[in-house]
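Session log. Operator J.P. requested a structure for one protein chain; no other inputs attached. Running the standard single-chain path with token output.
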Amino acid sequence: MNVYAISDLHLSINNPKPMDIFGPVWDGYLETIERDWKKVGADDLVLLSGDLSWAMKLEDAAPDLAYIGAFPGRKVVIRGNHDYWWKSISAVRAVLPEGTYAVQNDALKFGDCVVCGTRLWATPEPGREQSAADKTIYDRELIRLRLSLDAAAKLRGERDRLVVMLHYPPFNGTFRPTVFRDTIAEYSPDAVVYGHLHCGAGRVRRKLLIGEVPYYLTSCDLVGNELVKVL
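Structure written below.
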């Protein structure tokens, strides 16, 4: 079983939003993703780390979910900061196509691979004071991260691999240790995937090895609109 990842597709199947206004890399990007996805086998996993759809309501996101659901492999999604349609995990899971799964502050096991994750939040840059509102969300996401990792630890066997899905990167532009990174390291994952960053972002590293843990940036526009092989 191979594990791939990609994120930030920003779909709008029923109400097309021209993504090429954000740069030429978005011109025909879905066609590139569709061609590349052919390498995925039926038993493979594809992790989609947030910002899947521009929809504001769950019913409006249904065509975007169906679009993803039609691709080969088993798909796992988490919420991104633009996924306003994602109101509750139970409601989301109720409408997911067959072979598509959602993770939110918990974990799922597929064969010898355990997947867990949460959205996370922006880590403040040096010299920028974190607002009270941001700190509240940041602290809440730390709790949710721990819940996800604890759930994964309960599912993980001795030889099982662990992948942590995030939307926001767990560090700022300096890549220095953060409470998010330190918490993740306690559980010795085999890989961490995240998105959120786009062309022009100042902290772009497509793959970053921290200790023995590889971190993969999977925003589609930064990976050539091709799935990143994680495991």
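Operator note: The longest helix spans residues 132-155.
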